[in-house]
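Hey,
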Amino acid sequence: MDIATIAGILAGSTVVAVAILIGGDVGTFVNVPSILIVVGGGFAATVIRFPLANVYHALVLGGKVAFTHKNTNPKDMIEQIAQLAEVVRKDGPLGLENVEIEDEFLSKGARFVADGYERDVIVEMLERERDLNLERLDEGQRIYKAIGDAAPAFGMIGTLVGLVQMLSAMDDPSSIGPAMAVALLTTLYGAVISNLIALPIADKLSTKGKIVEVNQTLSIDGIIQLSQGKNPNLIREMLVSYLPEKQRAQMLAAEVAVAS
């Protein structure tokens, strides 16, 4: 579970709720026409830009990444690949069938090696899966960004609708208040949906895509070395370039200490 996403949404919602409670009645900030304009209009604009099935899958993917995102450390992955290389040296490729691998992508690659697939076949299948994963994350990011763009736009449309209603009924003072509420609350709803939910999740999907690209490319390189029966220490040295400079130095220092 991604605590940062939950904490951020709760903190933002709490700030807005406290400001509303301090300022007056909560019911004043609930307006059904405003909600319909922002939510319905934003959803309609997004469906026009993207297929409905893709929008549904993107919403599910965004929620999964935002609330259950698990960050895999490349350093841990390199160590696990080196351990798999030790297994291959001792028991051969078939020994990989008895090793539990938590990362699904790495596990699939190890299974390909155990099954005796050719190097080019392994690379082709894993690269295709990586590219499809990145494509799904990229489309999810674009859909959430589209929602983040559409919500404030329909908030402005609702504001214009409310102003027109207000100006067309100036002779009836009782209708000015509700019309003005629609005018202001649609802008509020649009800003909250965009800046507290849609755009942050779009950025999280973008970040997830970069992490997936690094980790899965690292896995592919490691699996290639496994299929060729390379030495575990050599695999570490080849994959250490995926790490930040500080972690790279720490890993190399640890290898030297073990060797000595």
